[in-house]
């Protein structure tokens, strides 16, 4: 009887071990499956020299993919393919989806120039434009003049095109679900934030401030043309991504108060550019000296 008890204890011990190990592996699989997928963006140049097919925009939406005539697919450059060929089948798929994409092709603004989204260049025209738009929109939205705005370069995913700007361009530029926030920041903490930004490659996109950085150390900073008052409470427009660690920025911890909204970054910029369009103005921006970063090692 004693031997039987020993064997039973081994049996149950092994069984429980198998159950526990299986549960651990199952829980790990569930956790892995529950994680949101990591999405990255990259721009790929399209070679359309044979077909003449080009990326669709507001001007070429009807002809950019070519046309079908009877049993033939004709590319924009005039090359013909049988309707049952693989090339024609792909073209047909793309054409069939266009009605559902039509709303994205509507022109919402016009840009005077193409503006690149270079994340390692301070005082970047595109970044300046976005930060200025943020400060202007937030001032109207909150009914309080914004002293300063901060937007991360990484949130701008593609360049601003020259000429017609479509809703699709806006959606592609600002694809993330990040939202407008209003922070009240004491002057001494605002200086701490600017000192942190000075230690980064390109400072991030800002508006309302003029700063000079030497060897990634903050040398001077002016808000509204005046030195920062350590005790003054400044009105700051930004996005929720930067409140608690996005791009290593914790604006929330530096704030006396934070007002959250449900206004997407895309909606902020879209409202601003459509306002320009209604007034007959074009999107335009330039490097204006708001951020000067010097490195003595390059002198």
What do you see in this structure?
There is one protein chain. This protein is α+β, with helices and mostly antiparallel strands and 299 residues long. The protein is 35% helix and 23% strand. A five-stranded mixed β-sheet has the order 8-5-12-7-13. The chain has a four-stranded mixed β-sheet with strand order 11-10-9-14, with helices on one face. Residues 1-6 have low confidence and may be disordered.
Comma- or semicolon-separated keywords:
alpha+beta, 7 helices, 299 residues, 5'-nucleotidase,  domain 2, five-stranded mixed β-sheet, 14 strands
* CATH C-level of the largest domain: Alpha Beta
Task: Please report the distance between the alpha carbons of the first and last residues.
Answer: 90 Å
Query: How many beta-strand runs?
Result: 14
Mean pLDDT: 86
Briefly, what is this?
The chain is of the alpha+beta class.
Topology, element by element:
Blueprint (H helix, E strand, L loop, with lengths): L1 H33 L32 E3 L2 E3 L5 E3 L3 H16 L5 E5 L13 H18 L5 E4 L11 E4 H7 L5 E8 H12 L6 E3 L1 E6 L2 E7 L2 E2 L5 E7 L11 H4 E10 H14 L12 E4 L5
Parallel strand pairs: 5-12, 9-14
Antiparallel strand pairs: 1-2, 2-3, 4-6, 5-8, 7-12, 7-13, 9-10, 10-11
């Amino acid at each position: 009887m004693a031997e039987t008890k020993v064997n039973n204890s081994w049996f149950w011990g092994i069984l429980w071990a198998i159950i526990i190990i299986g549960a651990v592996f199952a829980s790990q699989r569930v956790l892995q499956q529950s994680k949101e997928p990591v999405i990255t963006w990259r721009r790929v140049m399209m070679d359309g020299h044979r077909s003449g097919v080009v990326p669709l925009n507001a001007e070429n939406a009807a002809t950019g993919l070519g046309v079908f005539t009877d049993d033939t697919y004709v590319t924009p450059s005039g090359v013909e393919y049988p309707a049952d060929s693989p090339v024609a089948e792909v073209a047909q798929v793309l054409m069939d989806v266009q009605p559902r994409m039509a709303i994205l092709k509507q022109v919402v603004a016009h840009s005077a120039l193409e503006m690149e989204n270079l994340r390692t260049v301070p005082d970047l025209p595109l970044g300046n434009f976005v930060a200025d738009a943020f400060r202007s929109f937030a001032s109207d939205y909150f009914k309080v003049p914004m002293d300063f705005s901060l937007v991360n370069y990484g949130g701008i995913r593609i360049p601003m095109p020259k000429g017609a700007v479509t809703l699709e361009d806006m959606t592609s530029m600002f694809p993330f679900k990040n939202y407008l926030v209003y922070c009240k920041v004491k002057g001494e903490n605002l200086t701490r934030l600017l000192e942190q930004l000075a230690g980064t490659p390109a400072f991030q996109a800002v508006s309302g401030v003029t700063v000079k950085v030497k060897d990634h150390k903050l040398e001077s900073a002016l808000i509204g043309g005046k030195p920062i008052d350590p005790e003054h409470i400044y009105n700051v427009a930004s996005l929720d991504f930067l409140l608690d660690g996005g791009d290593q920025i914790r604006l929330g911890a530096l704030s006396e108060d934070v007002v959250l909204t449900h206004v997407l970054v895309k909606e902020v910029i879209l409202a601003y550019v459509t306002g320009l369009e209604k007034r007959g103005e074009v999107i335009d921006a330039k490097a204006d000296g708001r951020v000067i970063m010097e490195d003595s090692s390059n002198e």
